[in-house]
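Backbone-to-sequence.
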């Protein structure tokens, strides 16, 4: 797993152990082999006399390359059957009638997605369980992070995932009201990690949740975004590195290692940004609205290349997924499909007031501001000295000044916005 962070590896190992236990209960077990996938899969398949190999499809460039190599090593004697259990519809199967390819705008894609009939699952057949030598899973101790409960993935295995889905049913009807409020821990499903690892299939999620209420329909619509990004990546796996809007691939990004460090550490002086980045580093998860705000801050306020942020999120997120992550980063950067125009720049303070009106999310992750009245937590630099002193807040460079308790903002948002618009504009109209 290229670039997988510690937490995602932990979750993967926990899930594989649970899968092994489930398979053992059925009289089999997980066969673990390490090495070049082409040689390993071919050796196991030929060694066991298999006539077909079944695998879950994946759209990343690495996975597409790997699967093509495996296929040419196996065929013609052995068939490679890719299934797409992590998607409602097989990527590439919902297409525009005009172009025959994936829609470049989400709304028509969603309309087609919602009315496309599902491909049948393969018919189950009896299989003979063979018992080859097993290497076993890596034996190093799996650190269970104390805050792992926040990633919504603390119980491993399909049964635990199913209970998380059933728990979500108690809350999904309020999704329209709660999904954009990061302080509401249960305002979204936290099912992204299960969907990524396949411990829950989106088919099961759609079947259980349905679309009977506005909240349910809004929730199910989000699953179409996953399929959409996967379909776009199936056609263009290079989108992890290349701006979809080629005219915006030449933005003169700023080389700002200090800004990137402050962003990663949650010390930008913008409380909603810092809260999000601290949630990410403490738990491996971040609320979607805050992913948008923090990503926009890096790309627009600091004018840092979206690929740097994409790599950081990919390393840190437990639900990190190449297509979903890069697709969303491109969307926020304005370089992606159906993205907002580049000159719309999210204002972190306005966003904070709107989506964290009580400042509760900020207070949770930036406790040094929690003694400020809720309305003052969004932009502490606008607060008077008496109020700051009463809350024990001293603004400054929190790195160097002993007295400072929280950084002053590292950029002026209005000026940064102008700079970003100019840089994007210049990329679009090169001299
Ligand atoms: C910069 C950025 C990076 C992101 N990186 C990832 C990533 O690596 N992996 C990932 O799964 N999601 C990613 N997302 C999308 C979204 O933030 C997460 O899917 C969501 O926060 C997961 O929480 P949830 O399960 O509670 O979501 P819910 O609100 O309960 O939504 C249900 C499901 O719908 C899907 N979904 C929701 N929003 C999106 C979206 N914008 N794009 C694609 N699918 C969506 C997810 O599978 C999610 O689990 C990213 C978003 C942004 C803005």
């Amino acid at each position: 797993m290229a670039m997988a962070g510690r937490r995602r590896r932990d979750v993967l190992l926990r899930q594989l152990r649970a899968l092994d236990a489930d398979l053992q209960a059925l009289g089999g077990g997980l066969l673990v082999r390490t090495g070049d996938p082409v040689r390993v899969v071919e050796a196991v398949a030929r060694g066991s006399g298999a006539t077909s190999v079944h695998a879950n499809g994946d759209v990343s460039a690495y996975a597409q390359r790997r699967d093509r190599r495996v296929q040419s090593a196996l065929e013609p004697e052995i068939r490679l059957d890719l299934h797409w259990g992590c998607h409602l519809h097989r990527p590439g199967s919902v297409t525009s009638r005009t172009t025959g390819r994936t829609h470049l705008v989400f709304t028509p894609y969603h309309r087609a997605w919602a009315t496309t009939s599902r491909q049948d699952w393969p018919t189950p057949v009896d299989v003979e369980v063979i018992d080859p030598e097993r290497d076993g899973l890596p034996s190093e101790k799996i650190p269970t992070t104390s805050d792992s409960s926040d990633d919504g993935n603390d119980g491993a295995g399909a049964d635990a995932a199913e209970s998380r889905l059933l728990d979500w049913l108690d809350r999904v009807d309020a999704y329209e009201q709660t999904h954009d409020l990061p302080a509401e821990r249960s305002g979204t499903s936290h099912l992204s990690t299960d969907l990524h690892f396949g411990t829950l299939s989106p088919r099961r999620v759609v079947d259980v949740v349905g679309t009977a209420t506005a909240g349910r329909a809004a929730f199910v619509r989000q699953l179409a975004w996953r399929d959409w990004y996967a379909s776009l990546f199936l056609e263009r796996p290079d989108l992890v590195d290349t701006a979809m809007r080629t005219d915006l691939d030449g933005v003169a990004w700023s080389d700002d290692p200090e800004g990137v460090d402050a962003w990663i550490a949650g010390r930008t002086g913008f409380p909603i940004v810092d809260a999000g980045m601290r949630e990410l580093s403490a738990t491996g998860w971040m609320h979607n609205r805050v992913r948008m705000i923090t990503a926009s801050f890096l790309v627009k306020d600091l004018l840092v290349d979206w690929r740097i942020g994409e790599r950081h999120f990919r390393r840190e997120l437990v639900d990190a997924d190449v297509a979903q992550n890069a697709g969303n980063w491109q969307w926020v950067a304005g370089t992606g499909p159906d993205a907002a125009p580049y000159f719309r720049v999210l204002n972190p303070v306005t966003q904070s007031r709107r989506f964290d009106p009580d400042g509760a999310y900020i207070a949770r992750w930036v406790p040094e501001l929690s003694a400020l009245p809720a309305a003052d937590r969004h932009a502490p630099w606008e607060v008077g000295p008496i109020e700051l002193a009463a809350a024990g807040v001293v603004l400054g460079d929190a790195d160097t000044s002993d007295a400072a308790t929280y950084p002053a903002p590292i950029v002026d948002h209005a000026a940064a916005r102008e700079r970003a618009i100019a840089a994007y504009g210049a990329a679009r109209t090169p001299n």
